[in-house]
Structures are given as structure tokens and as C-alpha cells.
Amino acid sequence: MMEIQVVNYSSNWPLLYEEEKKALLPILGKNGVAIFHIGSTSVVGLKAKPIIDILLVVKEIQLLDQQTPDFEALGYEVMGEFGLPNRRYFRKGGDKRTHQIHAYPYDCTQEILRHLCFCEYLRQQPEISLEYGRLKQQLAKQYPRDIEKYGDGKEAFVKRIEKEALLNYWKNR
């Protein structure tokens, strides 16, 4: 197991996302609805594990399943639902993961909104973003080789912020 690293924000992360987006768009073709940079690397100034998270929104998830060879050709490991119904999860880089993709059909709005609102809320609330970065850094030091405990340590904070983010989203519509 590789050591969990939480690092300072890098201005290179949006560039890495854009580069990967260009490689993914031809695979998605007409099945693609939208593609987003999500996760901590999408929030300027936020400390993060240096892994680019990408959200794909597609018309037909089954069509995406048929494109396994295309994703593998880009270096992705195709993981299927990986514990979340309707999602398709892809990861790249093996033990030194560089990218991960979360793909959902367009009508899986709860999951799509959850990801988008969380990131947007952190962008709008720098003090919460800083708090989240400190928590992640502390957990990485506390559990340097235990991704389960690292994730469990973030869970209450993430759930609370997701709730605030979604309420904020609906209040501002």
C-alpha cells in the first residue's frame, strides 16, 4: 500500500484535467452529456491527494460499458459500479494513481448534484475549504497507509458539507 499523501494545491491540476478531458471526449462521442473536474484538485487552494477526479455524465451507461477497451487504451482500470449502483468507476496509475473517473447516467441527478455542489460550495467558502484541507492532512499523517481509516475520518465532515452544499444550491435557485 502506497503512503497517503495530501499536498498543497497545484496550479497544474486544472491543466492535467483539461489534458485528460481532451483524451476522453472522443471516447464519449454522442453518448457524452457533460464532463467536469471534481474533487479536491478542482478547488483552488485546497490541499489534496494529487489525483484528478473527473465526473462523466452520459446518456446511456450501458454504452459506456461497451467502451472498456477505449478506457484501457488510455491506461484506465475499469472497475464497474465499485460499490455504488448506476456509477461506473475508472482509475489510472495503479498504486500511484493519477486520475479517477466517476461516470453516471444523466438521470442520476442525486449523485451528480452531490459531486458538483460539494466542490462549488468549497470554492465559495474558503474557510471550510481550509478546514477540510487541514482535516485531510491530519488524517494522512494519522493513517499514512490505511485508506479506509483515512476515508472514514473524512466521512462526517464530507456528509455535513454535502448537506450544507445541497441546501445552499436549492436556496439560491
Automatic annotation (TrEMBL):
<dbReference type="InterPro" id="IPR043519">
    <property type="entry name" value="NT_sf"/>
</dbReference>
<protein>
    <recommendedName>
        <fullName>GrpB family protein</fullName>
    </recommendedName>
</protein>
<dbReference type="Pfam" id="PF04229">
    <property type="entry name" value="GrpB"/>
</dbReference>
<dbReference type="InterPro" id="IPR007344">
    <property type="entry name" value="GrpB/CoaE"/>
</dbReference>
